[in-house]
Every structure is written in structure tokens, then in C-alpha cells.
Amino acid sequence: MEAIKEFLQRKDIVISAGRYGIGALGAMAQGLFCSLLIGTILNTLGKQLGIEALVQTGAYASAMSGAAMAVAIGWALHAPPLVLFSLAAVGHAANALGSTTLDGGAGAGGPLAVLFIAIIAAELGKAVSKETKVDILVTPLVTVLSGVGLSAALAPAIGTAATWVGEIIMWATELQPFLMGIVVSVVIGVALTLPISSAAICAAFALTGLAGGAAVAGCCAQMVGFAVLSFPENRWGGLVSQGLGTSMLQMGNIVRNPRIWIPPTLASAITGPMATCLFRFQMNDPAGGVAAGMGTCGMVGPIGVYAGWVNDVAAGVKSAITGWDWLAMLLLCLVLPALLTWLIGIPCRRMGWIQEGDLKLD
Fold first, then answer.
1. Which residues of the chain are under the pLDDT cut of 50?
2. Beta partners for 314?
3. Three-state secondary-structure class, residue 205
4. What pLDDT was estimated at residue 293?
5. CB 260 within 8 A of CB 358
6. pTM (two decimals)
7. 357 by DSSP, 3-state: which?
8. DSSP 302-349
């Protein structure tokens, strides 16, 4: 046993929820953002502006999503160069096969399959790296063969499971829009602020439709909410870094005083059902729901909603983009998160739950 521990330590193979559930998952979301999501944005811009070069560029970027996610995961796991480069093939295979179901239909499990399979392939590749005199052959062979083999064996099942879970969530949201609007908005919003990836979660289960709209509302409530709530302490720099960057910046303060999380979380519990019941706000971005977990980070959430509108109009599902649509986006993504969080924060400050300096960013 000691020999195994020493070997794992020497190979920097750390089997932990932190490395896989936070490090690898977060890196995967960045890879997804830099390929599929950026590709979708470019594609939408190209179609709206009539610039075919942007459409083609977006298509190239989107096609590389599997490879980008796997390489990002390998980077998070400190994979050596030969393992890292080999993961491009693994990611492509896992994403392609995970995007199908066991019966050959279209699945939603591409990102989830990449996460599981790229982790295993990367760790196996690390285990054999530089252990032989023909490392240039052995390491890529072990990484690619194990990754592609696992993709063929497991990815369609992962795709089926992810599709099933996503459909259950979206079906439940349609059936019980008020309750599920609260649940989805709060859970995804909280995930956005935690050091895990809400975007990866939404992508893994392809959360679109009303569930995707509730997720957008929850993420915006956290980001815009914290930006406004902490304005007295952090001023304009904090407003931009949290409102357009990430509410994760507040995690250190949340650990010290968890009650600062109450106002934005309650705000998300209000805007979520408003999105599902009042505005029927939907996220149908062609990227498969990843933008639903981005909130106002670079305004990716609203851009994803707009891309979904354009896609729905082109498909004939939606007749036109209306003023009601724009009003819903403005209120749910910006105005209500700011207003509700600020109002809920007033009694929290008066009761001493939130004190001066509690929201100060370093």
C-alpha cells in the first residue's frame, strides 16, 4: 500500500473531489467556453451581420469543443506534454460518442462523457509517462487507446443518462414551473458562486427551455446581486469584476460570513419562478445550454438567450423577437437581480447579519 501511495504521489495523481470536481470540472467549462460557446457567439454574429467568415470561424471553433475540453482537463490535472496533446483525440471521441444515446439517437452527454473519460485517460497516461525508454510511443498509445476505448464502451451510456436527467429536469419545470423555477434558479445560481462550474453542469444536462431560462435568472441574480450589494465596499471596480466577471470572488467572504449569501440567493428564488411562470423566459442557445450557467459573465447568458431566439425564429418555432422578450431579459438579467438583492440586503444590514467590510474584496 505504501508503494502505491508513493507511486501516486510521484506521478501527481491525486484522487480527490477537489481535483476532479472543482479543478477538472472548472477547466472543462473553460475549454467549452473557448470552443463551443465562442463558436456559437461568432456564428450568431456572422448570421446577423451577414459575414460568412464569422459563421465559418464559429463552426470551426464549435467543432473543436471535445478536444478543447479534454486538453483543459488534462491541464488542470497537471498532465505532461505527451499526455496533454493525446487528450485531444480522447476528447473528440468522448464528445462525439457521448452526443449519442444507446439506441443511436441524439444525446446530451458529450461534455459529461469528456469529463469522466478524459480524467481516466489523463491519469493512466500520467501513470506510464517517462516510465519506459520509448515514452514517445507508450504514453500517447496508452492515453489514446484507453480514452477512445472507454469512449466506445461508456460514452453512449453516459449520453443516454445525461439526456434522461436533462429531460426530467425540463419536463418537471414545464409541469411545475413555479417550484422548479425556484429549485433550478437557486441551485444553478449557487453553483455559479461556488468554486465549481455551473456552465459545465448546464452543458452536461443540456438545460434549455424554461429550465435554462430559470438557470440564467439564478446566475444573473448571484452576479449582479453581489455586485450591487457590495458596491459600498468595492465601488465601480467591484461592480464590474463581479457583475461581468464572477461572483465567485465573494467565496472567501462567504466562508467568513455565510449570511452575506442570503440576499442574492433569495433574489434568485424570486426571479426564477418569475422567469418560468410570468415571462416564460427560455434559453435555447445552439450551444446546448452552456450559456445558461454563465449569467452575466461577459454577458454570455443574455447573448445565449438572444442566440436561441435567432435560432428559434430561423427554425420557425418562434415568429419574431418581441418587445416582451427584450423586457423580460432586461428585468430578469439586470434590473430585478440588482433591485431585489439591494432591498433584501437592507434588513440584513440592520439586523447586523451583514456588517461593514463583510463584502470587501481583497
1. none
2. none
3. coil
4. 87
5. yes
6. 0.78
7. coil
8. HHHHHHHHHHHHHHTSSS---HHHHHHHHIIIIIHHHHHHHHHHHHHH
